[in-house]
Amino acid sequence: MAAPQDGPWLDDAAGRLIRPYTVSGGRTRPTAALDLLSLVMATGSVPQGPLGPEHALALGLCDGPTSVAEISAHLRLPAVVTKVLLSDLVDCGAVTARAPRFQESPTDRSLLEAVLDGLRRRL
Predict the structure, then answer these.
(1) C-beta of residue 42 within 8 angstroms of C-beta of residue 57
(2) How far from 119 is each of 9, 74, 107, 109, 115, CA to CA, in Å?
(3) What are the residues whose beta carbons fall under 8 Å from the beta carbon of 94, sequence distance 6 or more?
(4) Measured between alpha carbons, how far is 3 from 20 in angstroms, rounded to an integer?
(5) Average pLDDT value for residue range 16-25
(6) What's the pLDDT score for residue 123?
(7) What is the top-level taxon of the source organism (predicted)?
């Protein structure tokens, strides 16, 4: 057997040793409203009750505001599984989640003109 790539659940030769749905206990719907751009951050509270090793890994990635997409990439898990894990952490108070903040005008004309000018200069 080859040496593990990233912890006990990955193997160089075999890949992921545990199916993603097993990590989430077969659940496919998070209890918290999360999307890929939601920012998650640890509260400092210690979760009461047993959580799996993936929960601990996810919690370790939440020292500062981190997007769900970034956590999913680091965990090498599908986004839906990551959302389930993070919603478990939200439910037990270990992390908070908030929707990303967008500017009032996401299509700011001056920004678009600056991008267009930059593209023209590169041509």
Answers:
(1) no
(2) 44, 32, 17, 15, 6
(3) 42, 43, 45, 46, 47, 59
(4) 21
(5) 57
(6) 64
(7) Bacteria
